[in-house]
Structure formats: C-alpha cells, structure tokens
C-alpha cells in the first residue's frame, strides 16, 4: 500500500531544494512548476525538473510534479517536458470540474504513449477548491481515471473571491474556507480517494502543526501537505496509527469475528455496532493488515 501521509513541496527552479526534499522522509515529494516559480523562470524550471527526474529514477515512486493550470498557457509545455521522465504523479491545480480532470487524463494518455510509459500509470492529485467553480464541482470526480487524492487550498480561493484575508482574529479560517476544507473531505470520500489536508504555513510552529495534524487525521484526512522538510516527521507520526490504536482495532475485529451475525456487542462499557467494525477494519487496512 502506497503511503500518502506527507506531501512535501520543493520549488522546481532549485536543484538543491529538490535534492533535499527527495532525501527527506516524505512519502511523496512534489516538484512545483506553478506558484513556486516566477513566470520568466518557468521554461528553465520545467527543464530542470525533467533532468532531475531522469537522474533520480530510483526514487520515481515518490516523485510528483505540480503543473500549471490547464486553462493557462503553461500546462501542456509542463507535461511535454516532464512526462518523458515519467513522474509517478501529477498534482493538478485549479481544476474547474470533472471536464478538466478528464481532459488531463487524455493529455496524460497521449504523453505516456509517446514516451513508451505504461498507459494509465501516472497518478493525479487534485487541488480541488482553488476556484469558485471548483467548489461547486467538488462532488463530480467519482470514476475519473487516475485520481488518487484530493487536497484543498485557501489562498487562491481568497484571491478569486476578492477577499483581503481568509482568517479571523481567532487565527482559524473564516467560514468559506472551512467550508472548502469540509467539501474537499466529503468530495474525496465520494470519489473514493485520499483526502489530504492543506499546508501549515508556519514551518517553525511544531506544536501547532502536531495539534492540527492530529485533529485532521481524527476527522478523516489521510495525510497533509508540507512546505519544509522539518514538518515531515511530525506529519508522518500524526498520520500513523499508534500501537494502542491498532491493538484496539484488532480487538474489535476479533470480537465481531467471534460473534458472527451479531449486529451490536457490548464492550468495555460501550455498545459497538457495524460502523465501529468498519472503522476498525479501515484502520488495520491502512497499515496492510486485514
């Protein structure tokens, strides 16, 4: 089972930062050709990323690329540059809905065929809330090929909405952006893919990151984006079940197995039913245990 706990960004115009990210404990590394690269530097960055991918093929299973939006002038050039180097996945920013995701699938199929890569092998992660249209289409992705994960973002959405800020005095996100987070979680579940929490912007705030990551995992998120290697180990720990959690889940599974056909069982002062069993099985499956 592919781990998707930590997704670490590295700017595509910096070989040093790409090397550092690749050497980290991140489950997935994303070479960024979009926000981290200025407009004049994009051609050089895509060439640099392609060269790095080819030189580090042994790490292919964790190396992704964030391309530019499909509705802009750079996405096809990004794909033409990096697809011959066979990244394992593409992070897809600002999709406006299902049609954009299906168009990307067609493009990837063509580039895979041209490069001699296995058709359908390039995975996709959607940044699914960055446009107003995206918010309204977030439940439309079930069955779209290649999609394995969805995440959300608040900054581009705030810009698109004309907001001056997206946080209140209390430090949390304003309602619209909390709605984006919730819709992403629900949309990912509807599509049957992993929900990945957005970044924690202050990479020096380890206590805040630890608290937030734990809360997001409890809510159903499967991993989190990272902007600095220092965040990776905290995220990996937060999104990994503890030995105590696994033991408790196994106990529930074994209890129902010993009582076949029973819908509810009293256990340690609580009543357990089938949803408890399903969650226990999901937790065990997340570490490869049935």
Write the layout of secondary structure elements.
Layout: E1 6-11, H1 15-23, E2 28-32, H2 42-55, E3 63-66, H3 75-82, E4 89-93, H4 98-115, E5 123-127, H5 132-136, E6 147-151, H6 155-161, H7 175-191, E7 194-197, H8 206-219, E8 223-226, H9 232-238, H10 243-257, E9 265-267, E10 270-272, H11 274-285
Parallel strand pairs: 1-2, 1-8, 2-3, 3-4, 4-5, 5-6, 6-7, 7-8
Antiparallel strand pairs: 9-10
Helix pairs in contact: 2-3, 10-11
GO biological process, one term: oxaloacetate metabolic process
Domain HpcH/HpaI aldolase/citrate lyase: 5-229
Protein name: CoA ester lyase
Description:
Helices cover 43% and strands 15% of the residues. The chain folds into two domains: 6-239, Alpha-Beta Barrel (TIM Barrel); 243-286, no CATH class. The chain has helices at residues 15-23, 42-55, 75-82, 98-115, 132-136, 155-161, 175-191, 206-219, 232-238, 243-257, 274-285; strands spanning 6-11, 28-32, 63-66, 89-93, 123-127, 147-151, 194-197, 223-226, 265-267, 270-272. α3 (75-82) links the parallel β3 and β4 (89-93). Strands 1-2-3-4-5-6-7-8 form an eight-stranded parallel barrel, surrounded by four helices. Strands 9-10 form a two-stranded antiparallel ribbon. With 290 residues, the chain is an alpha/beta fold. The chain is globular and about 65 Å long. The chain contains eleven helices and ten strands. It starts with 5 loop residues before the first strand and ends in a 5-residue tail after the last helix. α10 packs across α11. The relative contact order is 0.11. This is CoA ester lyase. Pfam families: HpcH_HpaI. Residues 5-229 form the HpcH/HpaI aldolase/citrate lyase domain. Mg(2+) binds at residues 130, 156. One of its GO terms (molecular function) is lyase activity.
């Amino acid at each position: 089972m592919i781990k998707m706990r930590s997704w670490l960004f590295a700017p595509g115009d910096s070989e040093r930062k790409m090397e550092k990210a690749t050497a980290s404990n991140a489950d997935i590394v994303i070479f960024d050709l979009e926000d981290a690269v200025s407009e004049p530097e994009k051609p050089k960055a895509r060439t640099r990323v392609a060269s790095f991918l080819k030189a580090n093929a042994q790490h292919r299973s964790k190396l992704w690329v964030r391309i530019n939006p499909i509705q802009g002038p750079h996405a096809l050039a990004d794909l033409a540059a990096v697809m011959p180097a066979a990244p394992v996945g593409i992070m897809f920013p600002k999709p406006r809905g299902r049609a954009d995701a299906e168009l990307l699938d067609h493009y990837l199929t063509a580039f895979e065929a041209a490069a001699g890569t296995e058709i359908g092998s390039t995975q996709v992660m959607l940044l699914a809330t960055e446009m107003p249209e995206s918010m309204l289409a977030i439940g439309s992705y079930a069955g779209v090929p290649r999609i394995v994960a969805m995440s959300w973002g608040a900054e581009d959405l705030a810009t698109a909405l004309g907001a001056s800020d997206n946080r209140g005095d209390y430090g949390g996100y304003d309602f619209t952006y909390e709605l984006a987070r919730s819709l992403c979680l629900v949309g990912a579940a509807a599509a049957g893919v992993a929900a990945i929490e957005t970044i924690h912007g202050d990479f020096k705030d380890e206590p805040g990151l630890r608290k937030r990551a734990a809360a997001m995992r409890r809510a159903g998120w499967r991993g989190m984006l990272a902007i600095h290697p220092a965040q990776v180990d905290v995220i990996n720990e937060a999104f990994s079940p503890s030995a105590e959690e696994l033991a408790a889940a196994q106990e529930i599974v074994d209890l129902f197995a010993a009582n076949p056909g029973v819908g509810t069982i009293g256990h340690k002062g609580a009543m357990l039913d089938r949803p408890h069993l399903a969650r226990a099985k999901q937790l065990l499956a997340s570490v490869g245990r049935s």
